[in-house]
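Table S2 (continued). Query chain:
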Amino acid sequence: VQLQACGGGLVQAGGSLRLSCVGFGITFSDAVVGWFRQAAGKEREFVAAISQSGRTTKYGDSVKGRFTISRDNAKNTAYLEMNSLKPEDTANYYCAADFHPREISTRKPPYDYWGQGTLVTVSS
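Corresponding output:
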């Protein structure tokens, strides 16, 4: 079982990036997928999550209105579209999958599997 996150990079403030999270060895459509981020010296924080069907989403307060999470179960892939990026969005971004969801969680447990992280750097 593996999750692979990609799409990070260096972007100027106000710019956009799209992150992808691909699942290998799993039935992707069974899982709630979440994105978290961790800036240097800070705790890992919730960014966004999406239900198995894609019909329900949740966002952290700091990204609402700027980020959009989506998924394509046929491609075993989830996406995080990030617009109007700010320097404070600079962090390693991680995707995670929860295969026994009771709800769309904003906490690190109960996510079972985690990707390796992709670095997003926003310059001012």
